[in-house]
Design brief:
CATH architecture of the largest domain: 2-Layer Sandwich
Number of strands: 14
Helix content: 25-40%
Strand content: 15-25%
Order of helices and strands: EHEEHEHEHEHEHEHEHEEHEHEEH
Structural class: alpha/beta
Distance between the termini: 16 Å
Number of domains: 2
Bound molecules: NADP nicotinamide-adenine-dinucleotide phosphate
Low-confidence stretches: none
CATH topology of the largest domain: Dihydrodipicolinate Reductase, domain 2
Mean pLDDT: 97
CATH class of the largest domain: Alpha Beta
Number of helices: 11
Largest sheet: 7 strands, parallel
CATH superfamily of the largest domain: Dihydrodipicolinate Reductase, domain 2
C-alpha cells in the first residue's frame, strides 16, 4: 500500500453503481474518499442512509473544480454523456480517471459515433480495462474505461476459449439481467409493475454491448439480453461450437491457465454457477458442459452487475492502475 492513502472522488455517488463505490472505497486500506458527488441538479447535500456507519459523509452537488484540485483519482459512475464531458477536464487537471460508463470503450471512431455519440476522440492514455485480461495496459493508464456489465461476463467466459482457438463457429450469448442494470431512473420497461412476474428480451441486434464484446473478442457474437425480475445479477448462457476433437480437458485447461492467478474468477466446471452465489461480491463464476461428440459447448457465466459488472471491477482497476493489491477493498 502507498505511504499515504490515495485521494479519490466518487462522481455519481447517488446512483446504483456509485453507492457501491462509496461502500467499498470507504473501507479501502489504500484510499480515502475525499468527496462524493451527485449531479448539480440538487443543491442540498444528501446522505446515503444505506451506508450509515460505513460512510457518514454527505453527497455534494457536482463541483468540477473541487474534484479536480483535491484528488489523485476520480471514479465516474455517470450517464455516458456526462462522463464524456467531465473526464477530459479531470485528465487535463492531472487526475487519473476510472470511468464506469460506455463513453470511452469503443476504439473504432465510427462505432463510437453510432453507439456513444457524445464522445469525441478518445483521450490519450485511454485503455479498455478488464483486469483479468488487460492488467499490463491498466497499470500505466490515465483513463481506464471499465467494461459494461454484460461484456464483463461474456469476455471472461469467451476470452480464454478464443485464445485457445476453441471458437469454431457461431457464438450465441443469451443473457439475463436484473433491473438495476438500467440505473435508478425508472422507465416503462423497468417499472416494478411491468417487470415483476415477467421476462422479456430486448435490444436484439441493436444493443451496443454487442460492439464492445466483438471489439474485444475479435469474433462475431449473437447477443440477446433479457430483463428478469431480480434487483441485481447477470447470468449468461453462452453457446459455442468447438473444433472437432476438442476434449473436456482442452476446455478445462483453457480456463484454468487463463485464471490461475485471477482472484475474482471462480471456475465451477460442470457444477453450474448461479446468481445467488455471486450477488454482492466481485466474483465472476464460470461453469461449462461440453458435448464432445457433437462439438457443442455451453458456458454459464454470472456476476453481480453492480459489483463485478460495475463498481467492484472499477476498484479492481483502480488497484491495478496504482500498483495496489488487486484485491484491496474487495474481499
Ligand atoms: N447499473 C449497472 O449495472 C451498470 C453496470 C456497468 C456500468 N454501468 C454504467 O455506470 C454508469 C452509472 O450507472 P448507474 O446505473 O449507477 O446510474 P444511475 O443509478 O442512473 O446513477 C447516475 C448517477 O449519475 C449522477 N448524474 C447524472 N447526471 C449527472 C451530471 N450531468 N453530472 C454529474 N452527475 C450526474 C446522478 O446524480 P443525481 O442523483 O443527482 O441524479 C447519479 O448519482 C452508467 O454509465 C452505466 O451505463 C452501470
Amino acid at each position: 500500500m502507498p505511504a499515504s492513502p490515495l485521494r479519490v472522488a466518487i462522481v455519481g455517488a447517488t446512483g446504483y453503481s456509485g453507492v457501491e463505490l462509496v461502500r467499498r472505497l470507504a473501507r479501502h486500506p489504500g484510499a480515502i474518499v475525499t468527496g462524493a458527488y451527485g449531479s448539480s441538479a440538487s443543491e442540498a447535500p444528501r446522505r446515503l442512509p444505506g451506508l450509515a456507519r460505513i460512510w457518514d459523509g454527505e453527497v455534494q452537488p457536482f463541483d468540477a473544480g473541487r474534484v479536480a484540485h483535491e484528488n489523485d483519482a476520480a471514479m465516474l459512475a455517470l450517464p455516458e454523456r456526462a462522463a464524456a464531458e467531465i473526464a477530459p477536464a479531470l485528465l487535463a487537471a492531472g487526475l487519473r480517471v476510472i470511468d464506469l460508463s460506455g463513453a470511452f470503450r469503443l476504439r473504432d471512431e465510427g462505432a463510437r459515433a453510432r453507439w456513444y455519440p457524445a464522445t469525441g476522440a478518445l483521450p490519450e492514455g485511454t485503455v479498455y480495462g478488464l483486469a483479468e485480461r488487460d492488467s499490463a495496459a491498466i497499470a500505466g493508464a490515465r483513463l481506464v474505461s471499465c467494461p459494461g456489465c454484460y461484456p464483463t461476463a461474456a469476455l471472461l467466459a469467451l476470452g480464454p476459449l478464443a485464445d485457445a482457438g476453441l471458437l469454431a463457429g457461431d457464438v450465441i450469448v443469451d443473457a439475463k439481467s436484473g433491473i438495476s442494470g438500467a440505473g435508478k431512473a425508472p422507465s416503462d420497461r423497468t417499472h416494478f409493475s411491468e417487470n415483476h412476474g415477467s421476462v422479456a428480451a430486448y435490444g436484439v441486434f441493436t444493443h451496443r454491448h454487442t460492439a464492445e464484446i466483438e471489439q474485444e473478442l475479435r469474433h462475431a457474437v449473437t447477443f440477446v439480453p433479457h430483463l428478469v425480475p431480480l434487483d441485481r445479477g447477470i447470468l449468461e448462457t453462452i453457446y459455442v461450437r468447438v473444433p472437432g476433437g476438442t476434449t473436456a480437458a482442452d476446455v478445462a485447461s483453457a480456463f484454468e491457465s487463463a485464471y490461475a492467478e485471477a482472484p475474482f474468477v471462480r471456475l465451477t466446471g460442470t457444477a453450474l454457477p448461479e446468481i445467488k452465489h455471486v450477488a454482492y461480491t466481485n466474483f465472476c463464476d464460470i461453469g461449462w458442459v461440453l458435448d464432445e461428440a457433437g462439438g457443442r459447448l455451453v458456458v454459464i457465466a454470472c456476476l453481480d452487475n453492480l459489483v463485478k459488472g460495475a463498481a467492484g471491477q472499477a476498484i479492481q482497476n483502480f488497484n491495478v492502475a496504482f500498483g495496489l493489491d488487486e484485491r484491496a477493498g474487495l474481499l
